[in-house]
Amino acid sequence: MFTNPSKLTPLALVALLVGCESSVAAPEALNPPVDGLTAALAPGDGPEHADVMNQGGAGVYAGNGATLIRQPNGLRMSLKMPLPAPGTYVYAPGTQAGHPEVFTLWAFIFNHPENCTDPCNGDDLGTATGANGGAYNVGGVIAAGNTINVAGRIGVGEAPFAFESLKLPETAEVHLALAPHGAMDPSSLPNELRVPVGSPACGCWWVAIFD
User: Fold this and answer.
1) What's residue 197's pLDDT?
2) Residue 59 — left, alpha, or beta (φ > 0 → left; ψ -120 to 50 → alpha)?
3) Which is more confident, 193 or 4?
4) pLDDT by residue (tens digit) across 88-119?
5) Would you list the domain boundaries of the chain?
6) pTM of the model as a whole
7) In the prediction, which pLDDT does 26 show?
8) What is the DSSP letter of 123?
9) Which among 31, 36, 47, 92 counts the fewest CB atoms within 10 Å?
10) Higher model confidence: residue 38 or residue 29?
11) What's the whole-number average pLDDT of the chain?
């Protein structure tokens, strides 16, 4: 697994996603929060685990906090990590600390990682790229307690939030990114659980990589 911050930084692709938000359809149904990894992950070929890196990519925030199960017809994934106390971490521009706070989980999939630029990043998203990368909203939560736990599934051919759909689940490179939305605004729900926040320069995402 890569821990080089230079690889993690391009994953904060929010600016790209926000720019195309008006031209792509939101998911028809939001993946609901799941209480516990066991409930979220069905039997398969065996889970892969990856560390969840600190915001900005320097160091590990949650060892083996991300789980991925590859299946012939899709991917199951989960990210679990300690809930940071409000006001103690980097917030996306335009958001602020509060209680409770909202977090969303995003999956960037690269169907042909062998064709990625080095490393796989925003240049490899889209149908016209050799890597055929796409972006999915895995789910969102209004965090409570001491732990953030977001889980979901992406099926082969399922419509992405943007760019290319998942085609090769058993060999695709997968990047998971948890985005902090700050204090919950009841007037923005449920749409806030489906849209990204931040920018490539904000250093505000927690990232895990499966390659």
Assistant:
1) 84
2) left
3) 193
4) 999 998 899 999 999 999 999 999 999 999 89
5) 5-210
6) 0.81
7) 31
8) G
9) 36
10) 38
11) 82
CB–CB of 116/124 below 8 Å? Answer: yes
Please report the pLDDT score of residue 199 as a whole number.
Answer: 59
Name the residue among 28, 44, 7 with its Cα closest to residue 120. 7
Bridge partners, 177 (sequence order): 106, 207
The answer to whether 203 and 55 are in contact (CB under 8 A) is: yes
pLDDT above 90: residue 68: yes
Asked if residues 68 and 76 have their Cβ atoms less than 8 Å apart, the reply is: yes
Q: What percent of the chain has pLDDT over 70?
A: 77
Count of beta carbons in the 10 Å neighbourhood of residue 36: 12
Amino acid at 25: A
Secondary structure (DSSP) of the chain: ----HHHHGGG--HHHHHHHGGGSPPPSSPPPP-SSHHHH---SS--EEEEEEPGGGSSEEEEEEEEEEEETTEEEEEEEEEPPPTTSSPPPTT----SSEEEEEEEEEES-GGGS-SS--GGGBSTTSTT-EEEEEEEEEE--TTEEEEEEEEETTPPPSEEPPP--TTT-EEEEEEEEEEE--GGGTTGGGGS----TTS---EEEEE-
Which tokens sit at 36? 């516990």
